[in-house]
Amino acid sequence: MHLCDLPDDVLRLILQRACACHQPAMMHAPLRDRLPLLAVCRRLRALARAVVYSAVDIQLGDDGDGLTVLRPRDKARCVRLKADLDAVAAAGCLDMVRHVDVGVFHLINPIPGLRAVAGAMCAAAGQWASVRSLAIHTHRCQRLDNEEQMDAEDLDDDIPGISAALAAVLPGLQRLVAAWPRTNAITSEVVGALAARYADQLRVLRSDYTAVTPPGVALRRLESVYIPRPGSGDDPSPRVDPAELRVLQLHGWPENHSWAAFSADGDGSKEIRFPRLQVLDLIRYKGATASGSDNSGRAGSLHFPELRTLAVKCLYDVPALLVRGVFPARMDRLSIETTSSALLNISSTALPSARRIHITLQHGGRSWCFAMVAAVRGILDAARDCDELELTAFCGGLFLRPGTLASAPLTRLSVMVEVHADIMVALVQSLPRLSSLVIRRLMGNGAWLDTLIPEPGAAHLMPPVTSTLGTVHLGASPSARAPEAVVSAAKYLLLAAPSLSYLSTIGAARLPIEAFVGERASQYPHLAKARFSYLLRP
């Protein structure tokens, strides 16, 4: 079948995937990478125009067109993107643009660059009606200490004018993003003025610097919002109607500010409902004390009937949300990133049940080993419906024990901590439903595993230990004998798991595994169906 014989819906999905950018900092691929799609064939060209010309980038220097403050690399990028914008205009496709990405390079004050962007867009007024998303990025070219050179009076005069000009040419804006403006709060002021103008139609709002909504402005139709840490003093919380929210991210927000933003009267102590919220992400959340008591006294009853994903990153505190929140009977994913001491308190609370659980430890030591194992066991006992568990520890002190996960109904297990070879065998034997196993830091002596493997040509075959394990990823820990342990573990699992279809190793020798498969293939026919992947440690 030729590509052009596919249905239109399938072709549109292919085009959207081809035009997407896989770099986290960019939402779409550069125009030069999208234009070749127009040359594939006539039928694809007709469908591709709306996708290829759906996004444009505008990058300007400190003085708009002069680019006097830029490094050669940044200057070349600005010139190229200006040519891309001219190409879209020359093709008569500005009315197809749905996303505009604005970047301003500056020394101190980004206002001149933003003013130039607004002027350039006003020059083509009436052709930006299809734009639904606007992202503003400011890039400081070099670090200066004399920020007081900014003219505050001129700044106050320019921000309303810039926001009014952009609002005039972007009547259908629904998504507003201010990314990486940490070097200058001026960008947030501009975005705040825009948010006030689009308060009744914005669906997505994000600013990485500070809360951008001015006092008294209520955002009634937001579906996704990122609220960064509040400013100093008694800065007012943003007002967000929770009725339409699907995604909520709170970064560094203390408990006594968090929920007042979603109350109609600004009182966070009352019951608040989030009827459609599906993703709740609390980053460096400051809630209750480590002992579990609530400092704020302002977090009232919080209802999340449709919540699917809850992610909590709290380094020292136990969020009162875990105690006061009303969650659905079963969520899809629960992610906890915390310290050793906080995890012990979190595990003692009534955690919501989730199908997938991810636990990450940031600090600790070997003295916390047994306490952490008990905490993990307590979390699994509370979430009896869990079938996927991922453990990550950057402290180097969490070691699994044979009984930690015994009889847990897990189908997927991913472990980023040190695991001895004998513990790996115990895990496989004690988890009857396990289908996927990932161990990034296998350690120990592989000689013990070799004693479990029958000799070539032996009359008795190795009995299967599991009938469900299909995918295995094994990585070696930094210890000297770990690569040998990975090789021995791979040999053991190849015989003990007849259902194994994919085996991946990192940091282990390839030839011993291939030789083992070759000499045992006649006795164990299932080895012929397995696929392998090897990655040697640099």
Describe the protein's architecture and organization.
By secondary structure, this protein is an alpha/beta fold. Among the domains are: 1-52, no CATH class; 399-538, no CATH class. Helix content is 29%, strand content 22%. The protein is built from 15 helices and 22 strands. The chain has helices at 8-19, 31-34, 42-52, 72-90, 111-122, 152-169, 186-197, 255-258, 321-324, 340-347, 369-382, 421-430, 446-450, 482-496, 511-520, and strands spanning 55-60, 99-106, 133-140, 175-179, 204-207, 218-219, 224-227, 239-240, 247-251, 272-273, 279-283, 302-303, 309-314, 325-326, 331-338, 354-361, 388-393, 412-420, 436-443, 471-476, 502-506, 531-535. The strands form three sheets. It has a 17-stranded parallel sheet. The model is unreliable at 22-26, 62-67, 143-154 and 288-299 (pLDDT under 50). It comes from Coemansia javaensis.
Task: Characterize this entry briefly.
This protein has 538 residues and is α/β, with parallel strands linked by helices.
